[in-house]
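Sequence in, structure out. First:
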Amino acid sequence: MTTRAATVNPPGGSCECLPVTTAWGRTLRPYRVHALVLAYLPLLVVADGLLAGRGQVALGVLTLAVLLICLRAVPRPQRLLVWLCVPIATLFEILGSLVWGGYTYRLENIPLYVPPGHALVFLFGITAAALPLVERHGATYVRVVLGLSAAWVVAGLTVLPLATHRFDVQGAACLPLLAWCLLRSGRGTLFASIWVVTAALELAGTWSGAWLWAAEAPWSHLPSANPPAAIAAGYAIIDGTVAIVAGALLRRRSRTRQSPEPQPAAA
């Protein structure tokens, strides 16, 4: 693809339109939505932390608007999955924070930006496989993410406690599930991408004080870092639930379309 530059007058006096290539534009175009999500979500939770929770309504409306913008670039069949993620992820947030108590938001609530924020994380994951770099280097991408996650787990048990005074046993307990999702689920690039955006979110959210992980996980009493390493494995449960619900809805719709219309009773 080329565009025509503005008319230029060279020293000889003749006018000529010079072609300008847009190779960089073509290269970066597929990554626009993912760059937006990866930049927006950490800034979102930092803003919530710095505002001490006072702007959660505005941040919720803004996040919904960002989600609607990003959905325009998503194939129509995947939009159903993204929308299903909103109520399902909200349910898991209620269970994880308000019921289980593994982590607590600053105002001890579920902020309004959280449901559409989860949908953005899910959107990032399910569309990442189509990115050119992921298509060409998917296996390497998955292995790098697994290596980084494992290094984080090891650090949480050895080096990081010297500064944080927390041993991350809960993060280590999540690593086997994350490794299975990355290597054996058949959706390794999805979970690798979710790990990337979740790691950025968790580090930004806990650093800014938007939420805090309990020093000891309720029920299991496993010591936990803030945030736990490999906690992106929790998205395996959300993703699996979305897939099950979506499959059930599609099967029901298919049966409804195939069922014969009732015949009128004979006079």
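Second:
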Amino acid sequence: MNIKGYAPGWQLRCRKCGFTQDAANAGIVRIRAFGVRAGTFGKKLILRRCPKCRQIGFHALELEHDPIDSHFEQKFVKIIIILLLFLAIFPPSLFFGIRYELSKATVYQQAVEQISHNPDVIKALGQPIECKMWNGSIQNGHAEIHFRVNGSKNSGIAYIIADKKEKNWDYQKLVIVLNDGQQIILPVHNTRF
């Protein structure tokens, strides 16, 4: 039975259990759709007890077949999924892309070359020697960086201080500090790689 002034075509949905009933049967009066719209996707929310789950909560007052709202909800869900995928993929790819570009820095590559061919380093660390990604800074032709150096027998951290003169790097310091505290100082005075 649909009384004039009640809400033809509208339904009341429990947001907890999903139970849906005709708004007119639920006693909802909706004259000329006047009122404040709020809540999810612009639906009006009404606080009441659900006849099925018996929980008190907000029920959504919505059209039985609202293609505009349904279309909007589908678009909204797609946008949220795209944003979540973007947030899941973009930061790691940006981080690893930057780290990859940093690994191609000339000052780092030249130091790795010097370390991996130095007989004192090979004796202390063992072969093969693996150098990890560097940390530190390279600004205005001045580099202060450090990175992990691993070998088959031991490992440590390489510390570099270098200045760029024209197209070459002058290394003031190239030291490897092993895990046991021993230091290997590589000869770099007036040497350009």
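Remark: Residues 18 and 135 are 54 Å apart (CA to CA).
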